Amino acid sequence: MKPMIVLAAAAVLGTGVALAASGDPERARILDGYAAQAKAQLPAFAGFSAERGQALFLGPHAGGKLAETPACASCHTRDPAATGRHYKTGRDIPPMAVSANPKRFTDPAEVEKRFERDCVNVLGRACTAREKGDFITFLSNR
């Protein structure tokens, strides 16, 4: 019975769930940081959602900086385990799914750099901490 209590506590705090979902301690730390930010921004925050992350990934979204990229899937394909292609340069983009690219979302500086650039291009604004966590949660389970 005690493991269930520990698991429930971890779910509330984020740490255990993030590590279980991501399989990498660095990714778990990144998710825990976004969880703390999300809770500060939205006191009713109850955890990340793979479903919301999938909706963010697939779009379509209006208001982005680039009309050619109304969704993350515009460059990364609808299958996050597949290699994407940059819309302008044609360069390959490594898969977004953690199952196909285990190092994805493990470098905090790189994660923030990509969110800062790509959220503006796709959404026309910065992503919230909850959106970032939802996105990583979705791709960690793919």
TrEMBL record:
Domain Cytochrome c: 48-142
InterPro entries: Cyt_c-like_dom, Cyt_c-like_dom_sf, DUF1924_SHP
Domain of life: Bacteria
PROSITE patterns: CYTC
The UniProt record lists the keyword Signal: yes
Coiled-coil stretches: none
Stretches the record annotates as Disordered: 78-102
Gene3D superfamilies: Cytochrome c-like domain
Record keyword Heme present: yes
Annotated keywords: Heme, Iron, Metal-binding, Signal
Secretion signal, residue range per the UniProt entry: 1-20
Pfam families: DUF1924
Full protein name: DUF1924 domain-containing protein
Originating organism: Azospirillum endophyticum
